[in-house]
Each structure stands twice: as C-alpha cells, then as structure tokens.
From TrEMBL:
Keywords: DNA-binding, Sigma factor, Transcription, Transcription regulation. This is RNA polymerase sigma factor. Gene3D superfamilies: 1.10.1740.10, Winged helix-like DNA-binding domain superfamily/Winged helix DNA-binding domain. The lineage of its organism: Bacteria, Pseudomonadati, Pseudomonadota, Betaproteobacteria, Burkholderiales. Pfam families: Sigma70_r2, Sigma70_r4_2. Residues 20-80 form the RNA polymerase sigma-70 region domain. Residues 89-108 are annotated as: Disordered. The keyword Phosphoprotein does not apply. Belongs to the sigma-70 factor family. ECF subfamily.
C-alpha cells in the first residue's frame, strides 16, 4: 500500500528535523523576496518540498539542507517567471522590538532600521544572501557554501564585497565636501 502523506511517525520525524530551523528559513526568504507575504509563501512551498523529499535526506546539517531548499525554491520561482512583488517596505510591527521608551530614540532606531533595510535591498541577490546567512543566521563559510552551492572562496569574496557595498550604501553622500 502507498505511504500516506500524513503518516504520523513520518510527520513527527520531519517536524523534529525541520521546525527548529523555521526562523532561519523565513529570515532567508524575507531577504531574498524582500517582501513579508512572498517570504511566507516561499517558506510554505519550500517546507512542502522538504516534507515531500525528506526521506532522501541522509543526515548532516538539516538547517543547511532546508535553507538550500528555500534558496532553490526561490530561484525556481524566478526562473519560471512567477510574479515577484518588488516591495521593499519596512514592516515596523516585525522589526519594532521595543514596546516603549523615548519617542526620539524609537524614531531614530526606526530610521536606522529603514536605512539598513533599504541598503540590504539594494545589494545584488548573490551578495545579499551570503550576508544574511553569515550575519543574521550565523552560518559558517562551509555551511553557506553548501546552501549556495558555491566554493568557500567565492562565499568569502561575495561576503567581503557585500559588506563593502552595504557600508557604501549606508554612508551619507559626501559629494558636497
């Protein structure tokens, strides 16, 4: 008889392996798509693919395996020409961690957050993804190389270039000096 998609043992094994990495998957999806709603869809589609094929997972780093699926799902979506919303809006509810405080400090923090969000959005996707994986998901160069299917040297080069570009995007315009 065919194996049922909803088999309880199979589902429990997948959940134990995959659910601890949901935040990392969403974080990568958010920065790849630059849109909260597209990120939600991307993670859902990636986790469905991961569930369907987790029987082929042969051990190792489950987080890297899942983030690879998120990344491949994103690029497959782009390749297939499915609509992508270019919205780069800043979701204050998602990023506002302080429930109170000095309004001037909160406003300055939000402005800084918007600047960083905008600068990250300007980075080419290959640079943005390595920066997010390294700085926000705290992955090693080896893990990033595995997720992006690129040599470690390329990861290090992209990361250095991404940091340099990000810094340039965050620097105030000095043309008037």
């Amino acid at each position: 008889m065919d194996k049922h998609l909803g088999d309880d043992d199979d589902t429990a094994r997948f959940e134990a392996m995959a659910m601890p990495h949901l935040d990392a998957a969403y974080n990568l999806a958010r920065w790849l798509t630059r849109n909260q709603h597209d990120a939600d869809d991307l993670v859902q589609n990636a986790y469905l693919r991961a569930f369907r094929f987790h029987g082929g997972f042969r051990g190792g780093d489950a987080r890297a395996w899942l983030l690879t699926i998120v990344r491949h799902t994103y690029y497959t979506t782009l390749r297939d020409g499915l609509p992508q919303d270019g919205d780069v809006s800043y979701d204050e509810a998602l990023h506002d961690r302080d429930g109170g405080g000095d309004p001037a400090d909160i406003a300055a923090s939000r402005d800084a957050g918007r600047s960083v969000d905008s600068a990250l959005a300007r980075l080419p996707p290959a640079f943005r993804e390595v920066l997010v994986l390294k700085e926000m998901d705290e992955m090693s160069y080896k893990e990033i190389a595995q997720v992006t299917a690129t040599p470690i040297g390329t990861v290090m080069s992209r990361l250095a270039r991404a940091r340099k570009l990000l810094l340039a995007y965050l620097q105030p315009d000095q043309a008037g000096d």
